[in-house]
Design a protein that fits this description.
Number of helices: 17
Shape: globular
Helix content: 25-40%
Distance between the termini: 59 Å
Largest sheet: 7 strands, parallel
Radius of gyration: 30 Å
Strand order of the largest sheet: 3-4-2-13-14-1-15
Structural class: alpha/beta
Length: 528
């Protein structure tokens, strides 16, 4: 149990309400905005089942998610899906990946608390049955057709590359199948004929295997694998889960607004002979949602100005909420301060390879790189109205006065250009294969470098080197003349260098240190 949750449960202000919190259905009154975060986490500890909290907008959902994250690491936030009624050049794949990743966590019961807005809940998603039928299961020593696996992965939303480059990609090299499950880790399946010989995890950046396993389940990448989804997030919850409505009146008001806006958008699209997105015309209304919740325990959270009485009602006293709010805020503040004083971690290879940018990081005139199009020049943000919808777009200039407009929520496709030198880079041209050819040349060069390194190290392994004798009295006498006390690191490096020199293989070691005395001392002791 999290320390914050434990401290809240030990407080006298909450103890008198704990038994009543197990009742269902129940309405909880007198809550503040702060208490709407920790009360659901406390309910989860009491009921030991999944909890789905539905609130009236995305901002409220994100705020509650952030607060609960301090108390329970097994909380997920499902963002709403943008409904696009026009064609555009780049999608926000990070959003699609996040939705699917969290949906899988709910399915596998790894997520204990689910936070979402009513708009997210109204949108149809991949049904649970369809997800289950699209899980690729691979087991050691069983036979599979690698061509069928390839087709299945493409159907599941994966894209084939020569080498896996990140989440959503796979590669086939002879009898080896690599699948990237996220941006850092992949699964390597080695076949002997049609039989699975080995299954291992590997690091994408280094291609090194890290762990051998006996079986693996590979899940779809996004919901886009089906054009007409008919499922709902609620069907993914385990039996006897709890559904919490945060201010039901506001939720119902927001639901009415969404349905009215959708009706106007559908009417406008039909009048202009445009295609109506399936998700827009197949929203779940409140009646359908309440039918789905009939098999769950229900909790309604209300603010202080609602007047309801009854057996299935808890009215928190103002003084108790004030005590609990103060304690919660104090504990979360302490936790944030503890995080600030933790030593900084080294940046991962993935971060160094291409740091994501925000609009604040870009200045007009900066050169940027689009994932699929190449090098362009950032010209600012333009507000454009398309099909009655007003959105902000990033404007990027390419060669020959070509211009590309990308939705601001698709920044995951953009990186800052970091090429060296003062000379401005050559802009790519829209519609050409220049960028694809450039990437292919780089990949080819990398393969050549890798092949040369493998040959070099294979040769070094087979060469017989000179094995030096162990330390002599003269060596000891020389070392004793050094006027300074060595550090633990210095002694360790000297010991390791000597051990390498005593082996009959060529030494392959680089000694790095900013201090010249340190290096000279270590090298002299080793070379004497």
């Amino acid at each position: 149990m999290n320390e914050i949750t434990k401290r809240l449960l030990e407080n006298e202000a909450i103890k008198k309400y704990l038994e009543k919190l197990k009742i269902s259905p129940i309405t909880i009154l007198g809550l503040s905005d702060v208490s709407k975060s920790y009360i659901p986490a406390i309910i989860e500890t009491q009921r030991k089942k999944q909890i789905c909290l539905i609130t009236y907008n995305e901002l409220q959902a994100q705020r509650i998610y952030k607060d609960i994250k301090c108390m329970n690491e097994k909380v997920v936030f499902i963002p709403k899906k943008d409904i696009i009624t026009y064609k555009y050049d780049a999608q926000n794949m990070d959003l699609l990946y996040l939705r699917m990743e969290n949906l899988i966590k709910i399915y596998k019961e790894e997520a204990k608390i689910i936070i979402l807005s009513i708009e997210t809940l109204m949108q149809p998603i991949l049904s649970k049955d369809y997800l289950e039928s699209n899980i690729l299961k691979v087991e050691l020593s069983k036979e599979y057709n690698i061509e069928e696996i390839k087709e299945k992965l493409i159907q599941m939303g994966y894209e084939r590359f020569d080498l896996v480059e990140g989440k959503g990609t796979f590669s086939i090299r002879g009898d080896i199948l690599d699948v990237a499950v996220d941006n850092k880790k992949g699964i390597r399946i080695e076949f002997f004929g049609d039989e699975v010989d080995q299954i291992r995890y590997f690091e994408i950046s280094s291609q090194r295997s890290t762990e051998t396993i006996k079986s693996i389940e590979i899940y779809p990448m996004t919901e886009e694998i089906i054009s007409e989804p008919n499922g709902n997030i609620l069907e993914y919850l385990q039996n006897n889960s709890t559904v919490i409505f945060d201010e039901k009146n506001k939720i119902e008001l927001r639901e009415n607004n969404i349905l009215e806006n959708n009706s106007l958008a559908i009417k406008d699209l039909i009048e202009r002979n445009k295609e109506v997105p399936y998700i827009l015309s197949n929203m779940y209304d409140m009646e359908k949602i309440l039918n789905l919740t009939s098999k769950f325990k229900i909790v309604e959270l209300e603010s202080q100005d609602i007047d309801i009485n009854g057996e299935n009602t808890i009215a928190f006293e103002h003084k108790d909420i004030k005590i609990l709010d103060s304690l919660f805020l104090e504990l979360t503040k302490q936790k944030e301060q503890e995080k600030q004083y933790k030593p900084r971690k080294r940046l991962s290879n993935d971060f160094r390879e291409g740091e994501k940018v925000g609009l604040d990081d870009l200045k007009i005139g900066d050169y940027v790189v689009h994932r699929t199009i190449g090098i362009g020049q950032y010209l600012g943000v333009n507000t454009i109205k398309a099909d009655g919808i007003v959105k902000d777009y990033i404007k990027i200039k390419y060669r020959g006065d070509d211009t590309l407009y990308i939705p601001t929520n698709s920044l995951d496709n953009i990186r800052k250009y970091i090429g060296g030198g003062e000379k401005s880079p050559k802009l790519n041209k829209l519609g050409s294969k220049e960028w694809e050819n450039t990437k292919n040349r780089v990949k080819s060069n990398l393969r050549e470098v890798a092949r040369n390194l493998i040959e070099l190290y294979a040769t070094r392994q087979n060469i017989q080197g000179f094995a030096f004798e162990k330390d002599t009295p003269w060596q000891k006498e020389f070392e004793d003349t050094f006027p300074y006390q060595e550090t633990e690191d210095q002694l360790r490096c000297i010991k390791e260098v000597k051990e390498d020199m005593e082996k009959p293989k060529p030494m392959d070691r680089l000694l790095c240190r900013g201090c010249r005395i340190w290096k000279n001392r270590s090298c002299n002791k080793s070379s004497i």
